[in-house]
Specification:
The structure is a single chain. The chain is α+β, with helices and mostly antiparallel strands and 71 residues long. It contains one helix and three strands, in the order βαββ. Strands 1-3-2 form a three-stranded antiparallel β-sheet, with helices on one face. The protein is flat, with a radius of gyration of 13 Å. The termini are far apart.
């Protein structure tokens, strides 16, 4: 895998719980509801997902992070 540097800065961390097959509604909630409600300004940086490789991403108990770069 290629290596990439991630610029330092803050991220709004929102959690998705459940199978990754149901990830789309969490993204809608993160970007369409929670991010605007937080009143933060987005900054130019990569948008990230944070995974736990020890968990099964197909289960209802799976948790992962949706990270939005903010100022």
């Amino acid at each position: 895998f290629p290596s990439h540097d991630i610029p330092a800065g803050n991220y709004l961390h929102l959690e998705h719980q459940g199978s990754i097959m149901n990830l789309a509604p969490s993204y809608g909630e993160a970007y369409g509801v929670e991010f605007p409600k937080a009143g933060l300004e987005m900054r130019p940086a990569p948008h990230l997902e944070l995974y736990n490789s020890e968990l099964d991403p197909m289960t209802d108990e799976y948790k992962m992070g949706i990270l939005i770069p903010v100022k």
